[in-house]
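Exam prep: given the inputs below (a chain plus zinc ion), describe the expected output before reading on.
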Amino acid sequence: MASVGVKLGSIGSQWTTACKQAVHDLNLLFRRKRIEVTLAINGAGPTINVETDASILGTLVHGKTSAETNDAGKLMRAEVRLPVKLSINTPKGVRDAGTGYAEVIAAHEFVHALGHAPHNSHLMAQTFSKSPGDRPAGDKLTAGGVSLPPLDLSDDSVAQLKSIWG
Ligand SMILES: [Zn+2]
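Solution:
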């Protein structure tokens, strides 16, 4: 089982909570789908460094990830950039988005960092529809007919991650 560390910069309490939740839930999903990689906050192995970036709009539903791989296609290090603050448009106006919504965006970028380049569906969709809850805790993103969270990977994404991580 390969191990990948996730190092959180000064990204604020909501992103810290969301990133920890994303690591936890991705590990459960990887176990269930038999993808042989484990993420760990401050863990050993190649590292995904996470920072916020004020140049990424908070109304967008994604961050930015760049990854360096070795000749075998294995991750050496990756940089994930997240918007400073996420907002969502609701019938009552614009407000800060909930942590579950942030978790989906963080998890999407972590999966890119693990070598998943294409945008297909579910967690790795090209575009998400925003689905605001009555309260921030109920905010969801939908893609490919699924509502996230909980995190879900399409069969294509599972096959691709298995081809990289065995
Ligand atoms: Zn993406």
